[in-house]
Amino acid sequence: MMAQACPISFETINEKVARVNAALTVLCMLVFVLTPFKAVILILGADLFIRAFLKPGYSFFSLLSRRILRMLNAEPTMTNAGPKIFAAKTGFVFTFVIGLLYWLGIPAASYIFATILALFAFLEAAAGFCVACRLYPFMPDFVK
């Protein structure tokens, strides 16, 4: 697990919040692919931008996730924030590509990218396996 790895960042985040955020991402991708409400990609993109480039705690998905976990009386499990922020950056790039492909009139390609993002988010939500986090140590500093 990332919690046992050497420090990548001195910030920590609640792993359980990240997993609920991932479940919300899966939900957004299902809405995008299966319904006519394509603007959900803008909502998800904005949230990922906040988590990736501003302050993760200010994202509306993170606020909702924390509220859900509070209602469930779930104890926090802290982990290094660096890989999770990188995962949010990766997710933001995916949402940008998904939206761009869709609005360029290539919906099939956007659905392929949406399915990949949904699969990665599902792995995080269901099994705690963060694909971007596994790639993080191998990324050059300018990407992190």
From TrEMBL:
Keyword terms of this UniProt record: Acyltransferase, Lipoprotein, Membrane, Transferase, Transmembrane, Transmembrane helix
Pfam families: DUF4395
Transmembrane domains' residue ranges: 20-42, 48-65, 86-105, 111-136
Superkingdom field: Bacteria
Domain DUF4395 intervals: 13-138
Keyword Manganese among record annotations: no
Keyword Acyltransferase: yes
Entry's Gene Ontology molecular function annotations: acyltransferase activity
Classification via InterPro entries: DUF4395
Protein's UniProt name: Apolipoprotein N-acyltransferase
Organism: Desulfosalsimonas propionicica
